[in-house]
Amino acid sequence: MAVPFVDGFGRRVKYLRLSVTDRCDLRCRYCMSEAMTFLPSKELLTFEELDRVARCFIASGVEKIRVTGGEPLVRKEIMQLFRSLSRYLADGRLRELTLTTNATQLSRYAEELAVLGVRRVNVSLDTLDPDKFTMITRGGLLARVLEGIAAAQAAGLAVKLNAVALKGFTEDGIDDLIGFAHAGGMTLTLIETMPLGEIGADRIDQFLPLSSLRRQIEQRWTLVDLAERTGGPARYVRLIETGGKVGFITPMTHNFCEDCNRVRVTASGVLHPCLGQANAVNLKRVLRGDGGDAAVMQAIGFAVRGKPHGHDFQIGPGGRPALARHMSATGG
Ligand code: SAM
Ligand code: SF4
To answer: Which atom of ligand 2 is nearest to the CA of 164?
Structure first.
């Protein structure tokens, strides 16, 4: 077994978010601009290269891989990758393989994902109002997402919902979203919008601090803070009336980095040890060089040791993004 990846602050990296595409069939207004330029497909890591990245991380102690994007399920023949990654689940090298998806393609893939050993999926869903959904995603159909969620649950996958909190959008309808989530046995996690990439709008106009959304939720429901942590940045409450949980991820109003155990690899093979900082190592060059897995692991180790202590998200002057790269490019 290789030496585990530990950063300069003693945090052990156990969790890889692996992006497989920067493309998406939606254009959520907080994530993308209307006219995005996407990577040419030859820039993407091949499935063999993605599998090799996974193997090298697993060899140094990564226990959990989340496949993401862009929308991971729009990449052509994506099940090939899940099939090859599921080998690591089957032989016990990997504890968990999961994905984050907008659920538009889940009806098609849920069953096979479950067969391959995926146990849960995170679905992004910001509203239950069909018109608001179409507006925020610039053209998406809510019904398709709801079908995808139902298909995932029918296939035995546990579903968690994520919603980005947006000013003037989320407040009205939050109770419906909570009710829907909890009636279906799903935890709903709310996320403050982060200033990643140019989106053709002022980030300040979108920003809704979760402290204010929580105050609103408290007027309708009884919240009990939970000590429970899932190793991620969310803090959870239980709602007495439903018995279900709501999570709060507050990158903007509280720094959540002290026990961060994750790194991200983009679809083009750039390793970002921190979502909110510019540090990066080009893994693709190493993967396509002749140094073998040893060189790949050395490059990963170098990046991990340079993992910044934390992000410093701030919305720039005029509501400009803190970082030029979009969430869809880094892998959310
Ligand atoms: N397409 C998939 C989806 O939407 O779940 C996976 C990729 S998406 C980039 C991953 C997550 O990032 C989603 O939950 C999305 O809501 C979130 N996200 C995108 N842009 C964001 C931003 N600027 N701030 C906070 N969260 C964002
Ligand atoms: Fe696509 Fe996900 Fe970004 Fe929405 S949040 S545009 S679904 S990548």
So the answer is: 5
Residue indicated by tokens 């419906």: 176
328 Cα nearest atom in ligand 1? 9
Out of 113-127, 212-226, 230-244, least confident range:
230-244
Tell me the per-residue pLDDT of 60-75, one tens digit each, with 9 for 90 and over.
899 999 999 999 999 9
CATH number at residue 204: 3.20.20.70
The predicted-structure confidence for 77-99, as pLDDT tens digits, reads as follows 999 999 999 999 999 999 999 99
Strands (E), the chain: 15-19, 64-68, 96-101, 120-124, 158-165, 188-192, 223-225, 235-239, 245-249, 262-265, 270-272, 281-282
Q: What is the pTM of this model?
A: 0.92
Q: Which ligand is nearest to the CA of 73?
A: 1
Task: Give domain status of residue 203, yes or no.
Answer: yes
Is the C-beta atom of 27 inside 6 A of ligand 2?
yes
Integer CA distances (angstroms), 283 to 49, 261, 289, 327, in order: 10, 19, 10, 19
Return the structure tokens found at 9.
């602050």
- Given a contact cutoff of 8 angstroms between Cβ atoms, the answer to whether 7 and 304 are in contact is yes
Q: Has residue 212 been placed in a domain?
A: yes
Domain range for residue 165?
15-330
Q: What spacing in Å lies between the alpha carbon of 87 and ligand 1's midpoint?
A: 28
